[in-house]
Amino acid sequence: MFVELGHFALILALCxxxxxAVVPIAGAARGNVRWMAVARPAGRLLFALVALSFIALxxxxxxxxxxxxxxxxNSNSLLPLRYRITxxxxxxxxxxxxxxxxxxxxxxxxxxxxxxxxxxFVARVLGVMGMISTGFLLFxxxxxxxxxxxxxxxxxxxxxxxxxxxxxxxxxxxxxxxGYVGFSVAFGFAIAALLGGRLxxxxxxWSRPWTIAAWSxxxxxxxxxxxxxxxxxxxxxxxxxxxxxxxSFMPWxxxxxxxxxxxxxxxxxxxxxxxxxxxxxxxxxxxxxxFLVRSGVLTSVHAFAxxxxxxxxxxxxLGVVIGxxxxxxxxxAPGMAPxxxxxPVSRETMLLMNSVLLTVAMTAVLLGTIYPLIxxxxxxxxLSVGPPYFxxxxxxxxxxxxxxxxxxxxxxxxxxxxxxxxxxxxxxxFGSIVLGVALVLMLAGGKYIMTxxxxxxxIWIIAGTLVNVRDRLRNxxxxxxxxxxxxxxxxxxxxxxxxFAVTIIGITxxxxxxxxxxxxxxxxxxxxxxxxTFKMTDLRDIKGPNYKATGADVKVTDADxxxxxxxxxxxxxxxxxxGVTTTEAGIHAGVFRDLYASLGEPLGDGDWSxxxxxxxxxxxxxxxxxxxxxxxxxxxxxxxxRVRARQEAAALEAGQAGQAARS
Amino acid sequence: xxxxxxxxxxxxxxxxxxxxxxQHDPSKVPSxxxxxxxxxxxxxxxxxxxxxxxxxxxxxxxTLLNVWASWCVSCRYEHPVLMTMAHQDNxxxxxxxxxxxxxxxxxxxxxxxxxxxxxxxxxxxxxAIDLGVYGVPETYVLDRHGxxxxxxxxxITPDFLDKTLRPIIKRLKExxx
Amino acid sequence: MRTVAALLFALLLAYAAxxxxxxxxxxxxxxxxxxxxxxxxxGKLRCLVCQNETLAVSEADLAQDLRGEIYHMMANGKxxxxxxxxxxxxxxxxxxxxxPLKRSTWLLWFGPFLLLLIAVVIMIRFIRSRRTAEDGxxxxxxxxxxxxxxxxxxxxx
Lengths: 663, 177, 157
Description:
The complex is a heterotrimer. Chain A has helices spanning 2-30, 33-36, 39-62, 69-74, 81-86, 92-112, 119-143, 167-196, 201-232, 243-268, 272-295, 308-332, 347-377, 387-408, 418-444, 449-473, 479-485, 488-513, 618-636, 639-662; strands at 515-521, 526-529, 532-543, 548-558, 563-574, 580-584, 586-588, 593-604, 607-616. By secondary structure, chain A is an alpha+beta fold. Among the domains of chain A are: 1-160, no CATH class; 168-339 and 350-358, Up-down Bundle (Four Helix Bundle (Hemerythrin (Met), subunit A)), CATH 1.20.120; 515-618. In chain A, helix 6 (92-112) packs across helix 8 and helix 9 runs antiparallel to helix 10. Chain A is globular and about 95 Å long. Chain B is an alpha/beta fold. Chain B has one domain (31-176): Glutaredoxin (3-Layer(aba) Sandwich), CATH 3.40.30. In chain B, the strands form two sheets. A five-stranded mixed beta sheet of chain B has the order 5-4-3-6-7. Chain B has a two-stranded antiparallel sheet with strand order 1-2. Chain B is elongated, with a radius of gyration of 20 Å. Chain C is built from six helices and no strands. Chain C has helices at residues 2-22, 32-43, 61-75, 80-91, 106-131, 143-152. The chains are: A alpha+beta, B alpha/beta, C mainly alpha. Chains in contact: A-B, A-C, B-C.
């Protein structure tokens, strides 16, 4: 009964979304205060209804209500409780409901944290979010309804795919959606600005914290996905340039360009049209990602149940939302005031470079991802575009980006002197080359150019950031006092840039120095590489709650013969319900290296094939990303946003009180 | 002025591309052997282990080379269609048993019927690599010169038989005369 | 009679051996450089059965067969190009994760760098135009510069 209530709530939510989409924007166009005032309550009601619906679906999963087709397809009474809840977003229909929940959550947040924004602006932003909600709710209710019933009710469900019965599934999709969907707020702000015909520095300051918050979530969402596939899939890889990975990476690239471009627009009123375009682009890529994953247009490890009819709907929705926005842009953007003046050596130029490089990088990734479609559509055969292409194109593009990060934050706005900059940075410049090359020579025998390049660039970024911090702390009474006086936006930026450098080190070293062995081993067999000896000490049968497995123990000793660890890896067979086999990798994590074992197939005579990996510095990749996320959160919390917001809210209220007093 | 409309134009192009893309199945791998001669092979048959068949033996008439196996689930759905074709259509169907055991194959044919004029036996699947086989069932349509004119990936459904396969066979036969 | 027995025995052996032969046998080169070349090449080829995995990693039957074929070809002195040509002749370009450079892929390989060039040219022209632009509507105070100027003057606010 409660579950049906959830279904009904979803239908009501659609009605509210339609109202939210139409009334406030019409109100803003006509200056009708009462219509505009519909926005906030409608937004909150939308969230309440969608949340109710989501809770109802979760309830159905917890209580094993297999009369729902979706529950029967994705759950099982033997499934542990936390995975019964996770299974809510385990497949297409439920994950769309999660998307909708996150979307209405951000809508709710906008209704709350917008006291400082003019009513017409808020009305437009929420109106845009209402339009998008309408589209998604229509999609869910008509093509992807998780509440469809079946009769007769099966005794038990088909179980959640064992690969998804993992903490990664609990965190990765929700964080990813928080990011994707969060960009809709920046999108809403951009459309509201275009509709209102007013695009200025104040708009950029409003938009920026929302955008940084969304970007931070997306960063951690992508990172979780990478980490999860590393330990789950059994071949120690952390990025495959799979179409769906690219679909999350492209909004991230544009999102990064956007937060930097917003900085320029906020502080100096430049690049207004470009920033608006980036805002539209970031959300467009989020929607595109949804399309690619669910339409069956590309082969991907992530693809949900592929259904071309759903693909048509999403494509149509994408066409209307983004086509409409770009039309609005083409109409309104030319009327905006042009950028202010700045000199070639200036922060504006650095940020422009950032935009250009990241946008070209995004285009390269997009091109590689859709190229197979282009070739097939033109009947020129069928080809694949994989990691060799992406690495060959993306990495060279990142080199100038890394160079720019080291220096960017030091350059002054509007006009700077390259001699002054050189004076500040020449020590860091030579230092990073010397230190980078020295480290590579010492530790790697100086063989690899790529390693030197990567390490030097990373050190350059860190050095440049530290020079900037030191510069800011000059003339402060004490170091700690100085640090506290720095705005959190500055600290956040510095932290994020350092995180980027840490990730570069991780990627460079793990790509160049990983060692992999694919061997046939039985109990007692040994193999040696990377200064370690690996010995298979045990091979046994294991029975789990819903699987059967063979487990292997691999004892690892170092060059001196000291024991390091025992890696335990399993090959699991979920025969009873889904007939799926998974590999559980045995990983010994370390700050400077991971040791990784992954059991393969039985070869007869008690031997198994097994893959052993030495992965140096791999954790630095995710640690760097974590620093980027933390930096983003700090930057979004900068006092100046809240202080200005309070001032503006007070002014608005005073203005309204004054109006009330006068009437 | 154009630079403001450019994003819209690029986007429209993308949408058009995706509309076309939605009509293709991304997992089907088209064969590069279309309009090329059947790769050379010499294989024993399932029924008579010492009898060998060469690829050239498949020339002379329009032929279907149907790759199947007793462990293949989709082949069970395809089989009745093949039996229909064996009785109704005037086309030679040659079976190609892929990575199977003789006993299981013979048992399968005994149970379900044998639509094949002969069944080639590729136990290890080595010759199949030359054919570009990557799954079962797959069916090659050969003209009388032994040139591959079409490759069907997946089972032959009644719909496919009517709409596509029969017209192809008809066209190839007309070229014969 | 003996030939029949021999034949049956052979069949039995073949049948018994079949599961082992079908299973994953990591083939290794003694020479580490060859081994690395082998593994790198496998990493650039797509498995056609498990289409989201490389030939290095996939445990599908066909992947194992192809790994064996490639091993033998390499042991017989074939170059990487000859091996990829062999595979492309049978499965098409789809099997290569590294798209070959040909007319149909010029846009793919040269596109991004062409775009970078065009973007940089536009960017330079835009920057040049800003040098002589007017300073328009009031903008946010450049606090960085202000605080720096004030610090240089002794920190008084």
